[in-house]
Amino acid sequence: MQKSIKLIILGLLILVSFKSVAQSDNTSYQEPYRPQMHFSPAAHWMNDPNGMVYYNGIYHLFFQYYPGGITWGPMHWGHAESRDMIHWKQLPTALYPDSLGYIFSGSAVVDSNNTSGFGKNGRIPLVAIFTNHDPKGEREGKNDFQNESLAYSLDNGNTWTKYSGNPVLKNPGIRDFRDPKVMWYAAEHKWIMTLATQDHITFFSSPDLKNWTKESEFGKELGAHGGVWECPDLFPLKLKGKTYWVLIVNVNPGGPNGGSATQYFIGGFDGNKFTTIQTKTKWVDYGPDEYAGITWNNTGNRKIFLGWMSNWQYANQVPTEKWRNAMTIPRELKLKDVNGDILLSSEPVAELKNNYAKVQTFKNVVVNKKLNVTAKAGVLPGQYILKMNMQHIMDYTITLSNQKNEELIIGYDAGKKQYYIDRTKSGKTDFNKDFAGRFFAPRLSNSAQSDITLVVDKASVELFADNGLTIMTATYFPSTHLNKMSISTPDKLKTGNLTIIGCNSIW
Ligand code: FRU
Predict the structure, then answer these.
(1) Which atom of ligand 1 is nearest to the CA of 72?
(2) pTM exceeds 0.90 for this model
(3) Which of 203, 337, 388, 437 could bridge to 215 as Cys pair (CB 3.0-4.6 Å)?
(4) Is the CB of 469 under 6 A from ligand 1?
């Protein structure tokens, strides 16, 4: 009798534990801090965006993913897809670790000419080029534990086959030898791989994605070198009919506000060498929480950038429980000429409009020392966008707060010509000593007029100032949503329109 009761209890326990395993991936997307208009995985750990490619009307987003927990671990490629880069559907994991190691960051291309020979019966292959990171080699103190490998898909990215000849590019003995970003260089009918190789970039070329030849190196003495170079990207952009080449290089640590960040170089590329006359370091995003950002392949003349919305300083400790970390809003990149200096600007993609719910516009608002912004029901709580333009920029602060006096301050200091975000009192900050603080970015525009767009989503803010010339991204973890807003200025701040756009949840 006693034995059968024990068996029943054991059976129940097993049932309960099976159920909780089965449920652990179902998500309501309503947990505290869950972004409502940014991609985050249903569960588990995520870092860099990978393999971003647009194909057959679908934007693919792969990402560094550890399905075994909510801290960094053996890396896989998770997968999500979208028709507008705003509404995402997470798909089954695309790439699993193999005998050559974990699947680190990389890119994906549409091999329309079937140069790789992976295509069959007229089906065009999508080819992923990634780093195989061998943890055993790393532990043993070897220098060649990162090598570049291929996988291909003949069903629009749903399933992937690893190439039997992996690795296709062998490490010559450089500890950090990773994150291949591959593009088609049409002028010479060849593929170009931009690879992060410790403290510089190495370019390789290939006719077929399988055989790679070294072309050149760049950057040992240029740009920010506070840490290792990672996740590069190379692409052309036009300004007033002239083509410039943009080289993106992520660096960790060594960012302008500590930890990891994304820098860029403007120059030329001739199929062999990248050259620049740039001497000053330029940053895509000055905030603490944009990293590993690169662009989608195969989007024609548009260049769309997406970053990981975190920082290696504390990414493993932020107080979410089911998943860790989200991506930024996709951003359209353009070049701007500011007094002869060519700069990269970023603005949220136009598709963000697909998600607008309620728009409230206040016309010709004059902020006389302080204005409490009272928005219609349903506009401020949750996720929203704030747009404000000013006839004359001067000191101002925008404070987002809640009933518990937690606050996030976004401001401009005219004397120092600096934007800032202060999250010192924004809620939970004690999980890491580097989290609380005030972060700065230079104002790069010289115009008296100014504009600012804030994308606010539960636990993150992205600031786009002066038509996208200065960008800052910061996460924060308040105990309840910051649903109050006020604007302060020492004098009279004349705005054109102040618009608040309440957004839908993408989930
Ligand atoms: C950047 C990075 C990459 C690497 C990946 C590992 O955040 O360190 O260089 O491929 O993350 O997850």
Answers:
(1) 12
(2) yes
(3) 203
(4) no
